[in-house]
Design brief:
Layout lengths: L2 H21 L4 H5 L5 E8 L11 H7 L3 E7 L4 E7 L13 H18 L3 E7 L3 E8 L2 H13 L9 H11 L5 E6 L8 H10 L1 E8 L1 H4 L6 E5 L6 E5 L3 H25 L2 E6 L4 H16 L1
Helix pairs in contact: 1-4, 1-5, 4-5, 6-7, 7-9
Length: 293
């Protein structure tokens, strides 16, 4: 992709996703991802009814009169996007690949975040950390992120969610809101790292999958390629046994994902590349808002 094509694609995504974040997600992100901490605001004179545990003894000693610390909710947040750039994200049997939909969802989340004056950072991962963009504010920073999502060529093709989660836990000292965007085609064990990451931060998972990840069409002999290993093989899709085995493998993978996210306390939504991701994101936001009430 040349520079002009890249610029046009970034601009197209910006126009669509920025409008969504302003017109549809306005307020939804703010409600679903409130700051959980409190920060020191000021000191004032002690008043009857104040908690004595809030007395600032240093100021009290200087003024020879009791003063208390006043706190307020920490509204400014940091959002981290953990984006799967493995080989399988390039796959798309329909009009849009998983990578393209992930780019739009990530951009929508990022623009929703800066509407709230939050910082946004990204961890791109395959079976290793491909790139880390530290959190910053502003439109220019978001456009940089979108360009990287579109144009980044990963060094590796495999997937290891555990690596991404461990990196986030170690790299970010301050609590953040995080979205893990992946097709979750990963045979590694990531339960422990997901549980730890969600305890330290506030993690949500978004699975983006293609219809052909879930089922095979009955079209006779088909040559298929593993996008992560590059290996090719022929399969007979006219065989009901083959199709059942494929369906079973998909079902078992989805059960594993649901089990791991549920046990880790992570909210999750699955989105087909032919579906409307706006509805799915709103559903995720509403679920989180209801839990927080």
């Amino acid at each position: 992709m040349n520079a002009k094509e890249l610029l046009e694609k970034v601009r197209k995504i910006e126009i669509k996703t920025r409008g969504l974040s302003q017109n549809i997600f306005a307020g939804e992100y703010h409600t679903a991802f409130k700051g959980r901490g409190v920060i020191f605001s000021e000191v004032r004179e002690y008043q009857p009814g104040d908690d004595i545990r809030d007395i600032d003894w240093n100021v009290t000693a200087r003024h020879n009169h009791p003063y208390v610390k006043v706190y307020e909710e920490e509204r400014e947040l940091t959002m981290m996007l953990l984006i799967d750039v493995s080989g399988s994200s390039d796959f798309g049997a329909g009009n849009e690949s998983k990578k393209e939909m992930i780019a739009e969802i990530a951009a929508t989340l990022a623009f929703s975040s800066i509407q709230n004056n939050d910082k946004v950072g990204v961890i791109f991962f395959s079976d290793k950390i491909e790139k880390f963009i530290p959190p910053k504010k502003g439109r220019k920073h978001i456009l940089l992120i979108i360009r990287e999502i579109i144009d980044l060529v990963p060094a590796n093709r495999g997937t290891n969610i555990d690596v991404a989660l461990r990196f986030m836990t170690n790299a970010l000292k301050k609590r953040c809101s995080a979205f893990l965007l992946s097709d979750f085609i990963d045979d590694h064990d990531y339960f422990s790292s997901m549980s730890i990451a969600n305890r330290k931060h506030d993690l949500a998972a978004i699975q983006v999958y293609d219809k052909r990840d879930a089922s095979l069409p009955d079209v006779g002999l088909m040559k298929v390629r593993d996008m992560e290993t590059g290996s090719d093989r022929w399969i007979d899709t006219s065989s009901s046994r083959v199709r059942r085995a494929f369906d079973k493998a998909w079902y078992e993978r989805q059960q594993k994902i649901a089990s791991v996210t549920a046990k880790s306390g992570v909210d999750m939504v699955s989105i087909n590349t032919e579906e409307d991701y706006v509805k799915a994101l709103l559903s995720l936001f509403h679920t989180r808002s209801a839990i927080r009430r």
